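hey so u asked for the seq, here:
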Amino acid sequence: EVQLVESGGGLVQAGGSLKLACVVSGFRFDDYAIGWFRQAPGKEREGVSCISSSFGSLGRTHYTDSVKGRFTISSDKTKSAVYLQMNNLKPEDTAVYYCAAARYAGNYCSNYILYEYDYWGQGTQVTVSS
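ran it, structure tokens below
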């Protein structure tokens, strides 16, 4: 059974930091690109960052413009985990954050096409107060 479990969300003041974790199981770690998405109330789900699989350039990282320089995605194969370090958080970063796994997106994981992501976690809430 495939599972993606997010953790690390919470309430933080503007300018603060959080580190999200996504622990995956049920598939070979290198075979799937892992993406982080977020969805704010009343808004569409949007891609934030992703890390490419062996289908592309394994380990290549990607960021949407709004988080470049503030967020860092990383992975630890020994723990089957992908992390999202979020620094200098802003109130507009408030959302439910999801991780998702895409078998065939490869380097194109950064297109953040929702239907290309095969598996999704349950989400973790991030709230940034001003």
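The radius of gyration is 14 Å. The mean pLDDT is 96.
lmk if thats what u needed
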